[in-house]
Amino acid sequence: MTELTNQTIAQALEGLKKKQFSAKELTEAHIKVMEETRHLNAYITETPEQALEAAQESDKKITAGDMRPLEGIPIGMKDLFCTKGVRTTAASKILGNFVPQYESTVSGKMLADGAVILGKTNLDEFAMGSSNTTSAFGNVISPWKRSDGSNADLVPGGSSGGSSAAVSARSCMAATGTDTGGSIRQPAAFCGIAGIKPTYGRCSRWGVIAFASSLDQPGIFARDVKDCAIVLKSMSGHDPKDSTSANKPVPEFAAALTGNVKGLKVGIPKEYNVEGMPAEITAIWQKGMDWLKTGGAEIVDISLPHTKYALPTYYIIAPAECSSNLARYDGVRYGLRVDGENLNDMYGKSRAAGFGNEVTRRILIGTYVLSSGYYDAYYIKAQKLRRLIYEDFINAYQKCDVILTPTAPSAAFAIGENDDDPLKMYLNDVFTVPASLAGIPGMSVPAGLDAQGLPLGLQILGRHWDEETVFRVSDFIETAAAFDAVPQMVKKAA
Amino acid sequence: MAEIVKGETGDWEIVIGMEVHAQITSQSKLFSGAATAFGAEPNSQVSFVDAAMPGMLPVLNQYCVEQAIRTGLGLNAQINMTSVFERKNYFYPDLPQGYQISQFQHPIVGEGEIEIDLSDGTVKPIRIERLHMEQDAGKSLHDQHPTKSFVDLNRSGTALMEIVSRPDIRGAEEAAAYLSKLRMILRYLGTCDGNMDEGSMRADVNLSMRRVGEEKLGTRCEIKNVNSIKAVQMAIAYESRRQVEVLENGGTIKQETRLWDPAKGETRSMRSKEEAHDYRYFPDPDLLPLVLQPQLVEKIEASLPELPDQKKHRFMSEFGLGAYDASVLIAERSRADFFEQAAKGRNAKLVANWLLNELLALLNKEGKSIAESPISAAHLGQLVGLISDNTISGKIAKDVFADMFASGKDASQIVEEKGLKQVTDTGAIEKTIDEVLAENADKVGEFRSGKDKLFGFFVGQVMKKSGGKLNPSAVNDILMAKLKS
């Protein structure tokens, strides 16, 4: 680790502006870490040449005094965002060597703002998973290790595990994610970094490979809350090409970080105090409340009564949408094709060879719940519950401005630990899924370490379109927690 | 007129409901900006959305929505202010998304009604159940290669309206009349070109049989691939007989989809109810519910053209035309417009006769549409004007008309150039008559001795000598007077 890779985006922009270093140097430093940390498998495709070209372009802009908001900032792009001319895989075999002829709206906006894309980061196949163990390109390994000397490889969280691992390992300054049920917030917590899923509709989904359209939302990982605010500003905004993107003005998110939470009402949902929650999680949650109280915020007990239905609801709606969204991968026009004796045989063989187990499982569940005779009992009921969960939040926000919860019910687990038990794996999302169903913004900030030295995150949920308050509270907690732990390997490199 | 099928054991009634797919007239597709022109090079009108590339999203074409509303209003139907697009899931190579975006539980248009005109001069209302919007699929080509199928996605994503009738149709004639009237309304509205041979209007026929007097509906079969009005009639004739035969032989009709084979002139089973797809409809999460503003519907309503039935009734009352003439005139909007233009300030009935009996016959013979007519509406009106004010006779008018059709010149010019103006001057008429009588003194004698029939001969000679230009009634009067004197 060099000084160049150990700074925030805000600092780097300042350094670039003052010509303390060039964008090329900044990019080269991160490429070097990317190469040194290849064993983490955080990137599926590295694009160092394009990155250096972009960095040189940035240097010209800087010299011309024409700096853009993300000028020269090396980032990772979750390999679910289509990137023009760069292979995009969704971590699935079914896409083969698919190279999009178009740039997703979000990556396009970031490029237009001067960001330098170092590569496409690994993820769970089609973003389906909570541990980044379902990727057809192999597991991502967290840069973190338990302090008990076990040396077991840990999961970085999922589905955006490549992005969280890369930011945590310092191989990029920020990385995009998508969050369908917690795929940004949970990996952020596992990797000890900040990550935000904005309000559904804040960032365009155009060019983002779909998992569950009514839940998918792009967002960002970075080392701290302010960096998230800076980058999210660039990613956000109305896109006429996405009918679900909202035509709302995008605030200057970074300006919301006032450090002041005085008078804010912070809701604590009693339903999130789940049975069997590790004491360490309860303790970090309590710490969060104490910090906010000290800062002058008011802690309010709230109830989100339908919380217990969130996971079953999610695991009906998300697979239902996924079963339909993934129907286009049929081997006819692009991607993997395995020839068969006839059309149906070709479909069957191509999809069987192209999709991994978790994706197959969800397609099957989704197909089942939408089938004639089951639709009302599953899909319609789930939609009704989703409405009730949404209303839970609307009602809660009558009483409070933000909601504070743990991000996940545990710290990162070892690779393979939950593999044989999908249900246990799904429980990882218990605190993140309700916000996804309601479409509200949520952020995870690192708040401390558990007994084994692994990071624990706190989740801050806000009202629809009120990312500003989410950022303000998150930033306050980040400061109060003074979280400065980094993975052993990062320390060693330094 | 309900058609009765006479069976061995009694009379059977045909019960039909129709599903018509009408391609919406629009420059671009329902959810993408790709063009929709017919007959383009394969796969030349395909956007990333139409090809269902990863990450692509549909955006609803506002113009297509307006076209659907316009059609709904033209069908006297309920416009639903909120409607929902759903996904109809099935796998097929010409369906790139693996689902068709359609409307299922909440269509944009609800119940309506149109009138059909039957050959016995009666009018029958047919109820419309619904109209919904959906994407068309692409086209699979199986005849391009011995072992491979090709796919053309030009049509993929094109906007369709599916118009579903109630089972109010009672036979082939009514079915044909329904399709004709529906096509006429769509063409008047400009929402579908109605060209069945280009596939921009396609019909599925749901047919069941029941004994005359029975209230309960029988089990129906859906007949697909009936792509002309004639094919619809033939398919109904075949299928109704087939079902009666099955029923009378003690069998039951299985609910199934059948394919019309125009070459063999028969329907055959395509798939049974049990084999039917489970389409797993659910609301498309990429699209918000379609909520219409009342002002939009009002604006479209205010801009609706006069519809065929309204026009027919107006032609009858305003111009004194008979129901049949009026219905032929309104069958095409361009024809009705032509008529109204020609009839302006003229004898409308006479204009209608000339248009229906002469011009349309000639155009038809030459395979031309009214828009391609060498005789303009104004010129036809002028011709009728010249007849009405006795400038030319009806007989001369036929020659002038033929000349107009061939040359494109107007009637006055031809009359002037060829000196065809009718002579009404008594002196000139008398002179010609005198000459004819002098040349045929023998025949004059015969006439006077009682051979009355020769009168026609004299008239013919007079007209021949004058080149037909003499006013016929004046010729009659003067000739009679002279012969009898």
Automatic annotation (TrEMBL), chain A:
Any one Gene Ontology BP term: translation
An annotated Gene Ontology molecular function: ATP binding
Annotated PROSITE patterns: AMIDASES (PS00571)
Keyword ATP-binding: yes
Lineage top rank: taxon: Bacteria
Catalytic activity from the UniProt record: L-glutamyl-tRNA(Gln) + L-glutamine + ATP + H2O = L-glutaminyl-tRNA(Gln) + L-glutamate + ADP + phosphate + H(+)
Annotated EC: 6.3.5.7
Broadest EC class assigned to this enzyme: ligase
Assembly: Heterotrimer of A, B and C subunits.
Family: Belongs to the amidase family. GatA subfamily.
Name by which UniProt lists this protein: Glutamyl-tRNA(Gln) amidotransferase subunit A
Gene symbol of the encoding locus: gatA
UniProtKB/TrEMBL annotation, chain B:
PANTHER family assigned to the protein according to its UniProt record, in alphabetical order: GLUTAMYL-TRNA GLN AMIDOTRANSFERASE SUBUNIT B MITOCHONDRIAL AND PROKARYOTIC PET112-RELATED (PTHR11659), GLUTAMYL-TRNA(GLN) AMIDOTRANSFERASE SUBUNIT B, MITOCHONDRIAL (PTHR11659:SF0)
Domain Asn/Gln amidotransferase, first and last residues per copy: 337-483
Organism encoding this protein: Micavibrio aeruginosavorus
Any Gene Ontology biological process: glutaminyl-tRNAGln biosynthesis via transamidation
UniProt-recorded name of the protein: Aspartyl/glutamyl-tRNA(Asn/Gln) amidotransferase subunit B
Its EC number(s): 6.3.5.-
Functional note: Allows the formation of correctly charged Asn-tRNA(Asn) or Gln-tRNA(Gln) through the transamidation of misacylated Asp-tRNA(Asn) or Glu-tRNA(Gln) in organisms which lack either or both of asparaginyl-tRNA or glutaminyl-tRNA synthetases. The reaction takes place in the presence of glutamine and ATP through an activated phospho-Asp-tRNA(Asn) or phospho-Glu-tRNA(Gln).
EC supergroup of this enzyme: ligase
Subunit structure: Heterotrimer of A, B and C subunits.
InterPro entries on file: Asn/Gln-tRNA_amidoTrfase_suB/E, Asn/Gln-tRNA_Trfase_suB/E_cat, Asn/Gln_amidotransferase, Asn/Gln_tRNA_amidoTrase-B-like, GatB, GatB_C_1, GatB_Yqey_C_2, Gln-tRNA_amidoTrfase_suB_CS
Family assignment from sequence similarity: Belongs to the GatB/GatE family. GatB subfamily.
Upper taxonomic lineage: Bacteria, Pseudomonadati, Bdellovibrionota, Bdellovibrionia, Bdellovibrionales
Keywords for this protein: ATP-binding, Ligase, Nucleotide-binding, Protein biosynthesis, Transferase
MF term (GO), any: glutaminyl-tRNA synthase (glutamine-hydrolyzing) activity
Coiled-coil features, chain-numbered ranges: none
